[in-house]
Hints:
Elements: E1 18-26, H1 27-40, E2 44-45, H2 60-82, H3 99-163, H4 169-178, E3 189-196, H5 200-210, E4 216-221, E5 226-227, E6 234-235, E7 237-244, H6 247-259, E8 263-265, H7 271-327, E9 331-333, E10 338-346, H8 350-363, E11 371-375, H9 391-401, H10 412-427, H11 430-445, H12 447-451, H13 457-464, H14 466-483, E12 499-500, E13 515-516, H15 535-568, H16 572-603, H17 609-618, H18 633-652, H19 654-669, H20 682-687, H21 699-723, H22 726-750, H23 755-793
Antiparallel strand pairs: 1-10, 1-11, 2-10, 3-7, 3-8, 4-7, 5-6, 9-10, 12-13
Amino acid sequence: MGEGRQRPTMDLLRSEPMQLVQLIIPIESAHRSISYLGDLGLFQFKDLNSEKSPFQRTYATQIKRCGEMARKLRFFKEQMTKAGLSPSTRSARNDDVDLDNLEVKLGELEAELIEMNANHEKLQQSYNELKEYKLVMQKAGEFFQSAQSSAAAKQREAEAQQRGEGSIDCPLLLEQEMVTDPSKQVKLGFVSGLVSRERSLTFERILFRATRGNVFLKQSVVEDPVTDPASGEKVEKNVFMVFYSGERARNKIMKICEAFGANRYPFTEDLGKQFQIITEVSGRLEELKTTIDVGLVHRSNLLQTIAYHFENWSLLVKKEKSIYHTLNMLSIDVSRKCLVAEGWCPVFATNQIQSVLQKATIDSSSQVGTIFHVLQTKESPPTYFHTNKFTSAFQEIVDAYGIAKYQEANPGVFTIITFPFLFAVMFGDWGHGICLFLATSYFIIREKKFSSQKLGDITEMIFGGRYVIMMMALFSIYTGLIYNEFFSVPFELFGPSAYGCRDPSCSDASTAGLVKVRASYPFGVDPKWHGTRSELPFLNSLKMKMSILLGVAQMNLGIILSYFNAKFFTNEINIWYQFVPQMIFLNSLFGYLSLLIVVKWCTGSQADLYHVMIYMFLSPTDELGENQLFFGQKFLQIVLLLAALVSVPWMLFPKPFLLKKQHQERHRGQSYALLDSSDDDPLETELHHGSGSHEEFEFSEVFVHQLIHTIEFVLGAVSNTASYLRLWALSLAHSELSSVFYDKVLLLAWGFNNIIVLIIGIFVFICATVGVLLVMETLSAFLHALRLHWVEFQNKFYEGDGYKFQPFSFALVSEDDE
């Protein structure tokens, strides 16, 4: 069973063949086996302990240890980010670090770093406090110096008045003032410090109200912002000095200072002591600055060492945590000292898995090898498509609708061509297509650089779909050449136009029209159609009929794929009672309409197809008259109408009864089954116990389901065909918008013969083209093409009720994995 195959089939039409495998792994080699399987990335484990909580599982302690190490690594990353460092991408890959040693090392580094941070914070706080103290000493000293100088000036003024010829009362008052008892003079206290400048006015007002005006406040602005010792942030502050009298006033001032976060510092009136304190503080600041710088250098060296090994350590912790998570999904057999694992793997990977398991056994020096046993099961396997960087984006478009059922036909194969083609039908302009191609070529050329960077949400989405956009651009260039539109301007690229004027003067060109003077234009729409009065009716007719042809072709493809699905799964009922009547119904009506369109194009007939299709239902026996396109058309229409009418009950009635009969026969045969062989594994028997239990067949539910399916197909055949007319509508809208921007912006600006107006016009034209046509119209056409694939195409055959193959792989370990 695929023993010689070492590579996937790369067959996108069917998912890879899968098998359910049981592994019996000795405990001593279990960790290494899971690690090697994670490197291989081709085995999806089943959780055999789903009934247990995470804390009841065997390796909960190890996961907790890994979680603690991950926390320490996050702490290191935060510290590196604050220090402006980033983890080294050229980390030493040959570091063979054991998890236990790493745990000890991380613990030591964390303790050392925390101690460094605490010491740095203390030193920085002391440094900031001393800087503030120095400022207070300088500013408060200025207060006292100015006060003493003003007092000395007043005293000299008083002495001068005393010596001069004054009034009789003046010497008496001065004498009375001088003989006052010094013990009765009031001694004023003061508090000095710094307060935030934005709160200084409020601080002053509260002081005044709390002490009823019995304080004197003096403030001085500090020019440069000051680092606050508490918060460590730069704050604009004022130095203040509050003079008060009494202990009660002092207590109130202290409380107000605490409330406003004002830092208080002691101050002495003695000038000599002031100078001495400032000198000491300056010396201490220099010492602290040197100590802080040395500490920062030591901390930076430590963080650089951590940054060099960070990626390796982080990857190791994530790998170990994912390994233990996987080991917790395994069932432990204590008696046999082994772990039992079950999971899915592709058939082509059998030899690869067996070889890595054998390598794990040898590397772990185990005496017993791992047993690889394929299980038989009725459970639906996961879906696995082996994609590459080109096909993965197209597969994602399909997967967004629903994951394919195991080995059903995959629409992703056809989406690679049909999706960009239908987009291009709506977006056809080879000028716009070239712009899209150049934009996506930038992402493709530099994809190695972009893939290693962290991109924004929109940029990452565009980069992920770069090959889809490239295909959309190439097909847009192709359809643009067919429509003959380059920013709405036609060109005679493939030869001269087939039409010319009736006379050399072309005087009647706008009234009588042009005549055909040479062979038809070889490729696409003749450029002479553009700008004529009949351009819109001609292009509308062409694009509308083309949309119907494309729609009927794609819906037929969907129904044909339903046949291949039924053939692959050997479902004869679906072939004869679903595929055949659906093909008859769709092609009896809309296949016939497509035939009429082709015949009308080939013969140049003037028949009205609307009239033909309407009266095919209303009065099929009436003569067609001038609407007859070929001999025997009336008889063919009657036959097709009867076939369409017959196909509806053909879809509705036989299938439910045949399913009921099939179920009864299967149930009747369940009483006779082969005896189980005696050497069957009890785990396998237990796993599949009860898988053949009888389920009741609800005929009413099956019939109602088939009724809904029939009605949906019949009505959908009409609505889906009409839905494909969006190809015509969006193509018309894109063409007209492009024409308006060209005629009403660019040509209008050109007609003014003014260079400034021309530059403005070109700028507006570029902005409108990029913003509306290359961004909004691209998104609009993309969404409409998406809808045509999801609804009109895939509902004909695609069930999409499978689940994705999610192997245990270290390559898929997320960076944000907790």
